[in-house]
Amino acid sequence: MDAAVDFVTDVNDSFWHAVIALLIGSGLYYTIRSRVIQIRLIPDMLRSIVEKPRTLPDGEKGISAFRAFSISAASRVGTGNVAGVAIAISVGGPGAVFWMWVMALIGAATAFVESTLAQLYKVRDKGAFRGGPAYYMQYGLGKRWMGMVFAVIITVTYGFVFNAVQTNSIVDAVASSAGEKTTVLQVGIGAVVAVLVAAVIFGGVRRISSVSQVVVPVMAGAYLIIGIIVVILNIEEVPGMFRLVFENAFGLREVAGGGIAAAFMNGIRRGLFSNEAGMGSAPNAGATASVSHPVKQGLVQSLGVYFDTWLVCSITAFIILLSEPDFGSGLAGATLTQNALALQLGDWTVHFLAVLISFLAFTSVIGNYYYSESNVEFLTGSRKVLPYLRSLVVVCVFLGAIGSVPLVWALADLAMGVMATVNLIALIPLSGIAYALFHHYSGQRKQGRDPIFRRGDVPGIKGIQVWDDEDVDVEPTPSARP
């Protein structure tokens, strides 16, 4: 087993160099082409996320931009924000934090493109919409086979494997708080989490979004408050902390965690794994929103990248760096974060982090599940298979609590690399459509109008499944037509 894990890990290390190069290259291209849209339109991002949802043709209110954002945030904001950042710092040094920030800035441009396209090529679902990379591969590129490959990979990786790993993380967090890991503890936690997951996912996308829009902001907000307290208590050390980050990022100061190469690679990978920009996962959530223009949700999903990396991941980094841990001492993952927080605020924070990780891992499970649901419907064209999918996800959640999954996690990393590659290849020829939509959006904004898009507004775009007049609950305006 160890030999298999080592082999897959070696393959990942080589393959991910190519994936990261593709992610950075495409992200820089989208950034330059859009004239840094991910910074220029931050006010529009904030405006779009609070808009009320449109009314669907059946008279029911659609899913709001914020609720769709919450689904993707549920998947993004998880144990990786607490443990993953700590690993990046312990291996790559403080400079990894800087490159994590850079990856978020670049990735936000890619997130805009993929989620705008997901909105454009979404399809009607029962009481909502669904879409994602598989859908824009079929309807935008005309390559259903490509969409099927992507759909299978994301279903297995997110729906089954990652959900098992998340439950395993809950067990580890609770065991750390309780002082020991026992079989009774594992089975008990597995059963409880499985029941709670079933209660949410069998309610469909509306229940998933309802739970996510409450739990994610509350738990992430609590973590941010704790982190801000740590920063305030060490306010005099903050300038030195930032200086350490920048000096290590450019090799001006070496630390035990590693030099500039280690800082660069670990920061880039941590940024990618955390915010998932370009991976093709978040667009599945973005497509569910009922908005008046595809660009609006593209902007909201870009904001999600900042929320995950610049806020939540940064708080973890600040907690660790302000506690002056001994880099390279062997502490890694959540243990490093727990020790740093306990040093600042007391041992009670170990239990606080156990609760936090449990909630964040739980919301990651239901967010991950929705990605598999959307893609299984793409593969089968039927909702009749969903009870079987949900049952299988619940089983995987339970098994994750009682098993060890190093090989499965390594295979999932490889699958994520393949998934990202397929998605990024599809985005390249479709990116022009995303920017045509942006020009359409900008034209209406310059006229002081609330941007509205209807099928046929931008000539030459084929394969659109919705966006008729009935999909927008407002009267047509002259600015909405070319």
Number of domains: 1
Give the CA-based shape: globular
Total helical segments = 18
Per CATH, the architecture is Up-down Bundle
**Uncertain regions spanning at least 5 consecutive residues:** 474-482
Average pLDDT, rounded to a whole number, is: 81
CATH level 1 name: Mainly Alpha
Q: By helix and strand content, what is the structural category?
A: mainly alpha
Give the strand line-up of the largest sheet.
1-2
How far do the termini sit from each other? 61 Å
Count of DSSP strands: 2
Please outline the major beta sheet: 2 strands, antiparallel
Would you tell me which CATH topology applies? Amino acid/polyamine transporter I
Oligomeric state: single chain
CATH homologous superfamily placement:
Amino acid/polyamine transporter I
Task: Walk me through what this model shows.
- This protein has 482 residues and is mainly alpha-helical.
- It has a single domain (2-449), classed as Amino acid/polyamine transporter I, CATH 1.20.1740.10.
- It has 18 helices and 2 strands.
- It has a two-stranded antiparallel ribbon with strand order 1-2.
- A hairpin with a 2-residue loop joins β1 (123-125) and β2 (128-130).
- The longest helix is centred in the last third of the chain and has 41 residues, at 406-446.
- The chain is globular and about 60 Å long.
Please summarize what this structure is:
The protein is mainly alpha-helical and 482 residues long.
